[in-house]
């Protein structure tokens, strides 16, 4: 909600497109590529990947879910 109040133009745009209002992701492109590579390798636990990237375990789980559903 705080993001919606801080960026009403983005909220209006998302609503017009029928999408949810979401704050932008915090990972850089390099971090995201590294995270995906580590998830796909399957050699590290979620906690280990989160420490390596660095990011939260929730982010690792979300990316893992996105990879497996694709």
Q: Mind explaining what this structure looks like?
A:
- This protein has 70 residues and is mainly α.
- Helices cover 67% and strands 0% of the residues.
- It has helices spanning 2-6, 8-16, 29-41, 46-52, 57-69.
- The radius of gyration is 15 Å and the shape is elongated.
Keywords:
70 residues, mainly alpha, 67% helix, 0% strand
In short:
The protein is mainly α. Helices cover 67% and strands 0% of the residues.
Shape, principal axes of CA atoms: elongated
Helix content: 55-70%
- The low-pLDDT segments are none
Mean pLDDT value: 88
Largest sheet: none
Discrete helix count: 5
Strand content: under 5%
The count of DSSP E runs of length 2 or more, i.e. the number of strands, is 0
Structural class: mainly alpha
Radius of gyration: 15 Å
Kindly report how far apart the N and C termini lie: 29 Å
> What sequence of helices (H) and strands (E) makes up the elements?
HHHHH
List the helices and strands and how they pair.
Elements lengths: L1 H5 L1 H9 L12 H13 L4 H7 L4 H13 L1
């Amino acid at each position: 909600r705080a993001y919606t109040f801080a960026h009403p133009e983005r909220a209006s745009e998302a609503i017009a497109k029928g999408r949810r209002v979401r704050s932008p992701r915090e990972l850089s492109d390099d971090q995201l590529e590294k995270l995906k590579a580590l998830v796909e390798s399957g050699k590290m636990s979620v906690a280990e990947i989160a420490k390596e990237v660095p990011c939260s375990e929730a982010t690792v789980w979300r990316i893992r879910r996105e990879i497996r559903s694709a």
